[in-house]
Amino acid sequence: MLLLPLSASANVALVASLNLAEGVQLVSLILLGLIMVASALGVVLLSNIVYSAFLLGLTFISISGLYILLNAGFVAAAQILVYVGAVNVLILFGIMLVNKQEEFSVIKNAWIGKAATAAVCAGIFGLISTMVLSHPWAISTQTAAGDNAIEIIGQHFFSDYLLPFELASVLLLVALIGAIVLARREFIPDAEVAQATSLTLPERPRELVAAGARDDR
């Protein structure tokens, strides 16, 4: 007789915990989506490129949070390590080492470029929306990989997706070489000459003395 109330209470507790988990996931999804959209708009709209780079890192972190909600922990960790820890930090180092302070010059007929950019963005957004709405999004019947997800991803990387994986490595290497080229200091000989002359003491002018006068002395 005591098993029925215990099982009923356990079921009620289980349903309540599931509802709470769904509510937390929904709130987290909304917050991460808002942060991602706001930071992405800041990347595009802010005139300070340093702030744009920091907001780009915030965008990457919010995307990794979405991956965590999808139970893709490895993809979330790779997102932070590769995009935030490598690409975004590389962009920041390139910006801060170059340190070019130039004012934005007024461009004639700038509205044409803005209109073209808006048209391209609207087209991409329409294409993605059409793809999302037309996809069936059926739940897969296969069992979840669970803890073996990293092993399965590694097998796909080195078998089915070996060429894209190596191309991504080459792309990161090219980006690193480009950052080094942009950040290197050029040799300026005039500056070194000016520094060398500034450290020398002024000499006292010497009087010219004839050879015969020196012998008489």
Protein described:
- The protein has 8 helices and no strands.
- With 217 residues, the chain is mostly helical.
- Among the domains are: 14-100, NADH-ubiquinone/plastoquinone oxidoreductase chain 6, subunit NuoJ (Four Helix Bundle (Hemerythrin (Met), subunit A), Up-down Bundle); 155-186.
- Helix 2 (49-69) runs antiparallel to helix 3 (73-98).
- The longest helix is centred in the first third of the chain and has 43 residues, at 3-45.
- It starts with a helix and ends with a helix.
Record the SSE blueprint.
Elements: H1 3-45, H2 49-69, H3 73-98, H4 110-134, H5 149-157, H6 162-183, H7 189-198, H8 211-216
Largest sheet: none
CATH superfamily of the domain at 14-100: NADH-ubiquinone/plastoquinone oxidoreductase chain 6, subunit NuoJ
Residue windows where pLDDT falls under 50 for at least 5 positions: 1-6
How many β-strands, per DSSP?
Answer: 0
Element pattern in H and E = HHHHHHHH
CATH hierarchy, class of the domain at 14-100:
Mainly Alpha
Q: Count every helix, treating DSSP H or I runs of 4 or more residues as helices.
A: 8
Task: Summarize this entry quickly.
The chain has 217 residues and is mainly alpha-helical. It has helices spanning 3-45, 49-69, 73-98, 110-134, 149-157, 162-183, 189-198, 211-216.
